[in-house]
């Protein structure tokens, strides 16, 4: 291959990654699975694979809302706190005798309202999302603790626990309702982002808000809708969380916000906005879960798992930068 | 054709815009006729961009009237002007770099599928948009881009400019305003953009060209609107004037009534 051919080949592969930023993370996921399957006897079993997916569900759902916000060039530090408050509302209302349907509606309303507050502050007062959600994180965490009155609330209700408990066997693999719900949610969000005008506007305003405004996109309205939708997604995450751990604890998921950002970034979505995909986020959440599971099977201490995850985050962003520079 | 007898595509009379004590537009007039390229020249700070903003709805004048094909109009936002068929190519181009050409051409004006797929599920008609985008590029003779799915960030400056111009020509039903379209381009790319401007004019769309590049203005403009101190000081034909005369008009070294001034097409 001549030097020119090689260069154009490298440019072309860089362009393929630009068009499809989830390709790199997907390759990393497959590589990790191959390595763990080869080095441990317990990784590649149907039970373990089902467990890996179940363990990634809550963070993956948080990361789905996070993806939308990051695509607009924002960041959400409060998502896990909002979700935890959602679990508190669901569990406490049921514990105090409400029907589970009423509790679910209340949980969704609370999470959506918190999303609307963040979105309103970002769009109407033009405040940086980092600051708004940092403030929201502190406030919502405190509200969750106040609302808990020092207790945690175990969930015995069928509907609230259904996402973790209920399911069916697909061949030998246990597919929980939570997995099915996550697949549906990711599919709907993928559709909205890639097949509707709204999705294109989300990407465009993350790319360059001023350009988006000049092309006639309602930048404020679109940005606000993203925070609102993310709030609704966090309510689903709360439901998923109760299915996974049937106990609402105001101190749970303390690193959920950072874990969701990790999944988004490893999935190839740019923190500068305008680039990325929900498919990447699925892969990003799975990579973290696979890494943790595989390293555990290999008998490696969980602190080293944190080290590995951290290295992966930096590697993902570095790779992203290299691809971007090469395409110029 | 004598311009004075036809109704201008766009006309403005006595526009005034003040910011506190600063007067950005000071009783400016403006006339654009069908099928012409009108260059707007003026020194920095003469109020060219304020005038253009008023015409494209980005700025609301305090006084004066704007007439679109003879009837008075009031633009409250750039969207109003766009709905009226006035497209602007901004100096920044207003393109989303991580998105492809077809997506950028239709940004903010996406086409949905017909039937319930479009009305209920909001499904975009991506193939129709791509086809239309391709047709538009072909019609304007933009052959330098390889395919409609290329991302903007992989294009050269000239190609990006061409995409922005193609978009304006596609949706501008009355006129296209271009703000310094060649300022950031090399010689060859500038030439391509000038060809593009000619092709748009030849298709019947009048073009307003704001430019600092005198040789370029003299090459392409049918008439030159000279702006000075917030108002139109003269309109001359490139054939009647020299570049240095136009520069003198811009700076005030020469006045429209002076014996050695080029013939002025308007009363000032």
From TrEMBL, chain A:
Top-level taxon in the UniProt lineage:
Bacteria
Bilayer topology reads: Multi-pass membrane protein
Q: What is its main location?
A: membrane
Annotated Gene Ontology cellular components are:
plasma membrane
InterPro entries listed in its UniProt record: ABC_transp_permease (IPR001851)
The GO terms describing molecular function are: transmembrane transporter activity
Alphabetic keyword roster: Cell inner membrane, Cell membrane, Membrane, Transmembrane, Transmembrane helix, Transport
Secreted recorded as keyword: no
Q: Does the keyword Nuclease apply?
A: no
Location in the cell reads: Cell membrane
Q: Where are the transmembrane segments?
A: 21-46, 52-70, 101-123, 130-148, 168-193, 224-242, 262-291
State the name under which the record lists this protein: ABC transporter permease
Species, as recorded: Kribbella albertanoniae
Its organism's taxonomic lineage begins at: Bacteria, Bacillati, Actinomycetota, Actinomycetes, Propionibacteriales
């Amino acid at each position: 291959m001549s030097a020119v051919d090689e260069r154009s080949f490298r440019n072309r592969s860089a362009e393929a990654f630009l068009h499809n930023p989830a390709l790199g993370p997907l390759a990393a996921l497959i590589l990790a699975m191959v390595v763990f399957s080869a080095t441990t006897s317990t990784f590649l079993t149907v039970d373990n694979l089902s467990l890996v997916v179940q363990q990634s569900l809550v963070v993956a759902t948080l990361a789905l809302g996070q993806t939308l916000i990051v695509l607009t060039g924002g960041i959400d530090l409060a998502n896990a706190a909002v979700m935890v408050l959602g679990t508190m509302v669901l569990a406490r209302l049921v514990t105090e005798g409400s029907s589970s349907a009423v509790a679910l509606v209340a949980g969704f309303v609370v999470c959506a309202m918190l999303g609307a507050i963040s979105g309103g502050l970002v769009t109407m007062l033009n405040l940086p999302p980092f600051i708004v959600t940092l403030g929201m994180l502190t406030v919502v965490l405190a509200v969750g603790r106040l609302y808990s009155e020092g207790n945690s609330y175990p969930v015995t209700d069928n509907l609230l626990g259904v996402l973790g408990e209920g399911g069916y066997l697909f061949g030998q693999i246990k597919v929980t309702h939570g997995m099915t719900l996550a697949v549906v949610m990711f599919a709907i969000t993928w559709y909205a982002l890639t097949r509707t005008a709204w999705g294109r506007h989300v990407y465009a305003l993350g790319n360059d808000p001023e350009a988006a405004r000049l092309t006639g996109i309602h930048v404020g309205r679109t940005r606000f809708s993203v925070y609102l939708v993310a709030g609704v997604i966090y309510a689903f995450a709360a439901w998923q969380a109760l299915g996974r751990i049937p106990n609402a604890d105001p101190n749970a998921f303390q690193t959920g916000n950072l874990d969701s950002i990790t999944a988004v970034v490893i999935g190839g979505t740019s923190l500068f906005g305008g680039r990325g995909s929900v498919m990447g986020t699925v892969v990003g959440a799975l990579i973290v879960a696979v890494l943790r599971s595989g390293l555990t099977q290999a008998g490696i201490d969980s602190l080293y798992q944190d080290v590995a995850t951290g290295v992966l985050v930096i590697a993902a962003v570095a790779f992203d930068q290299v691809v971007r520079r090469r395409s110029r | 054709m004598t311009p004075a007898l036809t109704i201008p595509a766009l006309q403005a009379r006595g526009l005034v815009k003040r910011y506190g004590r600063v007067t950005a537009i000071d009783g400016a007039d403006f006339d654009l006729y069908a099928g012409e390229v009108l260059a707007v020249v003026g020194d920095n700070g003469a109020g060219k961009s304020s005038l253009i903003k008023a015409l494209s709805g980005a700025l609301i004048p305090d006084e004066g009237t704007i007439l679109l094909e003879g009837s008075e109009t009031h633009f409250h936002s750039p969207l109003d002007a766009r709905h009226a068929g006035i497209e602007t190519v901004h100096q920044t181009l207003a393109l989303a770099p991580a998105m492809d050409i077809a997506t950028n051409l239709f940004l903010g004006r996406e086409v949905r599928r017909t039937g319930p797929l479009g009305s209920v599920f909001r499904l975009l008609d991506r193939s129709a948009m791509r086809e239309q985008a391709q047709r538009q590029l072909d019609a304007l003779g933009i052959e330098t881009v390889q395919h409609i799915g290329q991302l903007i960030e992989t294009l050269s400056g000239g190609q990006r400019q061409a995409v922005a111009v193609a978009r304006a020509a596609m949706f501008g039903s009355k006129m296209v305003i271009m703000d310094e379209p060649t300022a950031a381009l090399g010689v060859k790319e500038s030439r391509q953009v000038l060809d593009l401007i000619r092709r748009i004019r030849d298709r019947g769309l009048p073009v307003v060209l704001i430019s600092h590049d005198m040789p370029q203005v003299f090459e392409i403009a049918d008439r030159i609107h000279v702006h000075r101190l917030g108002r139109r000081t003269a309109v001359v034909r490139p054939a009647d004037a020299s570049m240095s005369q136009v520069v003198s008009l811009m700076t005030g070294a020469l006045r429209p009534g002076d014996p050695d001034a080029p013939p002025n097409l308007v009363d000032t």
